[in-house]
Amino acid sequence: MPPSTDAAEFQRILRTSKHIVAIAGAGLSAASGIPTFRSGGGLWQTHDVTKLATPQAFAADPVLVWRFYHARRRAILAAAPNAAHYALAVLALPAYRAAVAPDARYTLVTQNVDSLSTRAHREVPSPILEMHGRLLDTLCTGCGHTEHTTADPLCPALGEADDATPIAIEQLPHCLRCGALLRPGVVWFDEIPHHLRAINALVEKADLCLVVGTSSTVYPAAGYAHEIAENGGTVAVFNSERTDDDDFAHFFFVGPCEETLPRVLL
Ligand code: BJW
Ligand code: ZN
């Protein structure tokens, strides 16, 4: 049976849910002007993922990788949360849940590295698990120290050079504690995502899962909604495109999530 599109029925289930989890992906930030990875105009359609988003790529050419992440840091610093981020932030408000889903716990698990959900959640006391790290974090390849910084550029060479101007590795950002090369604080392929223990505990308990703006192609995130459905939980997908892979979902709200989330949740 195809998933339901009945918002009123979804709201009835929302009202009786006790453990709500939202799993977000790049589509959540599309309306903020942040490119997705795989859909139309996505980053991986114009860039080779193996040369940019793996530890091997960084070891082979840290200058190329840093140029790519410098441009992406700059883009998110100029961006603002959109209506979809705010709709999920409202779900995190105790007063909203007291009215709509009494006693429910809610956690946002995001694959996004743009910190836009955190910005929308300011003043809202609800954890956000950023499982693929953060573009605005740097991670020291020597001592492992992580730092969150909005500095732009992170070092003069990245700010001044166009892509044709050579940059020496010594000119890239280095750790103030141990002197080693810094890398972007994101999770690349073949690396272990963050907060897995907390996420697994949430997934085990969840009775309602919102899957927002993700192609569900990257694991482990891609498996969470299936696991929740197998455990008897309800899955509602919010995506601009419908695929047969989503047939396991109970609800599917097709369209831009910056429109569907406020319509269905608020
Ligand atoms: C809208 C919209 C709008 C648009 N409204 N919707 C073979 C089989 C199975 C697994 C593997 C395998 N080979 C390797 C693996 C593992 C690998 C993996 O899954 N690879 C797959 C490609 C097959 N995974 C890993 O390596 C992960 N680590 C791992 O598995 O460790 C081992 C381990 C785990 C657990 C326990 C024990 C051991 C790490 C994955 C790291 C992913 N990193 C990236 C880059 C982050 C840094 C950066 O930004 O540069 O994370 S890749 C990229 O993909 C990014 C994203 O978070 C992630 C997911 O993408 P997302 O968000 O789904 O975006 P899109 O573009 O794919 O989809 C957008 C969607 O939005 C589309 O559906 C649109 O329709 C929709 N949309 N506009 C609503 N307005
Ligand atoms: Zn260090």
From TrEMBL:
Domain Deacetylase sirtuin-type: 1-266
Key word Metal-binding present: yes
Subcellular location: Mitochondrion
Recorded superkingdom: Eukaryota
EC number: 2.3.1.-
Active site: 132
Keywords: Metal-binding, Mitochondrion, NAD, Transferase, Zinc
Reactions it catalyzes: N(6)-succinyl-L-lysyl-[protein] + NAD(+) + H2O = 2''-O-succinyl-ADP-D-ribose + nicotinamide + L-lysyl-[protein]; N(6)-glutaryl-L-lysyl-[protein] + NAD(+) + H2O = 2''-O-glutaryl-ADP-D-ribose + nicotinamide + L-lysyl-[protein]; N(6)-malonyl-L-lysyl-[protein] + NAD(+) + H2O = 2''-O-malonyl-ADP-D-ribose + nicotinamide + L-lysyl-[protein]
Positions that bind Zn(2+): 140, 143, 175, 178
GO molecular function annotation: histone deacetylase activity, NAD-dependent; NAD+ binding; protein-malonyllysine demalonylase activity; protein-succinyllysine desuccinylase activity; zinc ion binding
Cellular component GO terms, alphabetical: mitochondrion; nucleus
UniProt key word NAD: yes
Positions annotated to bind NAD(+): 25-44, 111-114, 213-215, 239-241, 257
Binding site for substrate: 69, 72
Group of enzyme by EC: transferase
Cited Gene3D superfamilies: SIR2/SIRT2 'Small Domain, TPP-binding domain
Cofactor binding description: Binds 1 zinc ion per subunit.
Cofactor(s) in the UniProt record: Zn(2+)
This protein's domain notes: In contrast to class I sirtuins, class III sirtuins have only weak deacetylase activity. Difference in substrate specificity is probably due to a larger hydrophobic pocket with 2 residues (Tyr-69 and Arg-72) that bind to malonylated and succinylated substrates and define the specificity.
The protein's role, per its UniProt record: NAD-dependent lysine demalonylase, desuccinylase and deglutarylase that specifically removes malonyl, succinyl and glutaryl groups on target proteins. Has weak NAD-dependent protein deacetylase activity; however this activity may not be physiologically relevant in vivo.
UniProt family annotation: Belongs to the sirtuin family. Class I subfamily.
UniProt-recorded name of the protein: NAD-dependent protein deacylase
Organism: Mycena belliarum
